[in-house]
Amino acid sequence: MENGIDPRALFTLNYGVYILSTGYEGKYNGQIINALMQLTADPICMAACLHKDNYTTELVEKSGRFSVSVLEESVPLKFIGVFGFRCGRDFDKFGECRYEVKEGGLPLVTEYSLAGIELKVLSVQDVFTHKVFIGQVEKAQLFKEGTPLTYANYHRVKKGKSPSNAPSAIFNEVK
Question: Helices H, strands E: what count in the chain?
Fold first, then answer.
């Protein structure tokens, strides 16, 4: 326990596992996130948290839009690794999966995904090493029924780790 913070206490919070993506000037990029929440119902708004150094963050700021693909519980760890541990500056993540691009120009990963959500950025808040993007939902679609992957199962069942830039990297210590 460091500075009175026991990471096991934070690990009791429940999260999902998602791919947040965007498109800008013909370039698509996305990354794994777990920091996503619905804020309001009318209009439907959500908040997503991204590290300031990530390429996806740069593209979301430029495009002013992002999409979220909700991953299913059966997604292989290797598939998560494509979006979670590779940088899109020098690797085409979308060359490794099935996805679709609707008229809004945002990529939605359809492989191992239960649903896709498209959002327009309303505001951005700096939070130390990260940026919180508040977005208004423009479209949402269900791809298939199933059980979403939780962050707890990602760690406990799949034995996955968090990249050092993830807000939840501290959970790597909890095993």
Answer: 4, 9
